Pyridoxal phosphate homeostasis protein (Funneliformis mosseae), 312 residues
Amino acid sequence: MASTEEKVSIENNVVIRKEEIEKNLLYVRQCIEAITQRQKEVRLVAVSKYKPASDIRFAYEFGQRHFGENYVQELSEKSKMLPLDIQWHFIGTLQSNKCKMLAEIPNLWAVETIDSKKKAELMNKACVSRDDKLKIFLQVNTSGEESKSGIQPNECLGLLNYIQDNCNKLELRGLMTIGAPNRNHFNEGQPNPDFIAKEFRKERGIELELSMGMSDDFEEALKLGATNVRIGSTIFGARPGIVTYTISPYQQRAFAGAIKHGVFNVFRRTISQAPYVGVPITLGYLIYYDRKKRHDFLASKAGKEELLKYTG
């Protein structure tokens, strides 16, 4: 059992972490208000990928409701653990075989990464049993780089019209870009997201939002017309290569059993389901998010010694 000192230390860590997240959220909200002067409504999506449920709950208790996740499995697990009035945004690369799992999340608010006719059709089909229409954003490649995801700007209107006419379970909500648009790129003749939105409104009478801007550039994005910003590290802290995680007594037993019996897949599951903090343990995030690296580390003498220091 944990000593009184250990319990006090854990409680102090919880308070510190909660205050940190609240302080960061307040800072971001104040930045948004300062730039927009409250002349337009801006949605703040707190990007919580790789973050424990406890962090999301702290932000939730401070009034945050929109959260963004990059991985379907992680989003599905967290949605089962946290309040149902959280409004989840999927902002990662959409894979064909994950559409059904995404559609089954009852409080999935939007998918922001539709970038092809095929993905729109698959998502529409997956949503057939949903009571509501699923909000979607069309991801636009504003960088001009072929390696980046997203549809080319000059192809947007065609896909927008196709979705509006053929996907009755999807609600077109807006356009999404990774980061703020590159002004130089648009000066070369490519239509920017704001222009595309205006053209679509002219054709169909539908107002589209602009989802752009992250921690590094959300202030610039707001000045360029963003109405939906996706901010992670400014709220929850940067994702380091090596980080100190905290685990519950239940997880300690799971870790010990995993080492003893060689069941390594338990690690990601137990960490992602931890709603509370416990004994600290140092691991690189890749160790439990990358199956092979996790297995290699835990199979090594150093890995076992590191974990057994805490699990006995």
Q: What stands out?
A: Residues 124 and 169 are 5 Å apart (CA to CA). The mean pLDDT is 78. The chain has 15 helices and ten strands.
